[in-house]
Specification:
By secondary structure, this protein is mainly alpha-helical. The chain contains 3 helices and 2 strands, in the order βααβα.
Amino acid sequence: MILYHGSNVVVSEPKLIRQNRFLDFGFGFYTTTNKKQAIGFADKVYKRRKNGGRIYTAGALTKEQTLDALKIKKLNNQLVLTSEKALSYLKFIGTVPEEEF
């Protein structure tokens, strides 16, 4: 099974890192079997970090664009690995080519 992790950096060795934010299913390493979903999430993370996370107040998005971005989108699936043992079954095989973004 191929799993994708949506990130703005290469994660060749996943680690369980405690986050100070609320995630859909709590603590863990999030993956999906849906490449398009992972690419979309990675793009969103990239744009958020590039703009300092406050893109509405910075004037980069209109009120309507911001509200649309906050709507819950359809997620195809998420698989959350929550232990070192679970992570040990993963094998990094590469990244999605930039032209697919």
